Amino acid sequence: MLWLEEPLDKNDYRGYRLLRAKTGIALAGGEMNADLHEFRELILNESLDILQPDAMLSGGILTAKKIASMAEAHGLRIAPHTWTSGLGLAANLQVMGACPNCEWAEFPYEPPGWTPQTRDFFLEDHLIIDSDGYINVPSRPGLGIGINEEMVKRYARN
């Protein structure tokens, strides 16, 4: 087992610290933490081994990068939780590609429901896992992806 994820409430900093002290399994969390300050508390309280910010939920790409930098300064790893959409995955891939303390990415891939086609339905190109199990960081300008305007129009609500 690589890590135990989210065993306690997201703001139970003391509980995480106590659990971390009593187990040899790395603790991961932060997927639902919403801002820089919550991650600062997780770090200062020595609550986790692996922080899991999601750029879509934790304040954007800049904040996720700041969280990753704080984690790196404290010898911690990150593994962004990116369970929103292809757009969210593209944003988090940009963070991951800029962080030396990121070895893993958590993203939706649970066929038959969560596939690149369902997750990325409104992107021009799907973010595909290669034969080695990796997703490459998109290299086009911006987030590296294009939006399929026809799909947006098809599913848009007024």
Question: What attributes does this structure have?
Answer:
single chain; 158 residues; mainly alpha; TIM Barrel; four-stranded parallel beta sheet; 4 strands; 35% helix
- Compute the CA-based radius of gyration: 16 Å
* Number of domain modules: 1
| CATH architecture level-2 label | Alpha-Beta Barrel
Largest sheet: 4 strands, parallel
Total helices: the number is 6
Any idea of the CATH class? Alpha Beta
CATH H-tier superfamily: Enolase-like C-terminal domain
End-to-end CA span: 46 Å
Query: Which class do the helix and strand fractions yield?
Result: mainly alpha
Spans with pLDDT under 50 lasting ≥5 residues? Answer: none
The number of strands is 4
Amount of beta strand: 5-15%
What string, H for helix and E for strand, traces the elements in order?
Answer: EHEHEHEHHH
CATH topology: TIM Barrel
Structural overview:
This protein is mainly α and 158 residues long. It has one domain: Alpha-Beta Barrel (TIM Barrel). The chain is built from 6 helices and 4 strands, in the order E-H-E-H-E-H-E-H-H-H. Strands 1-2-3-4 form a 4-stranded parallel β-sheet, covered by helices on one side. The longest helix is centred in the middle third of the chain and has 13 residues, at 61-73. The protein is elongated and about 50 Å long.
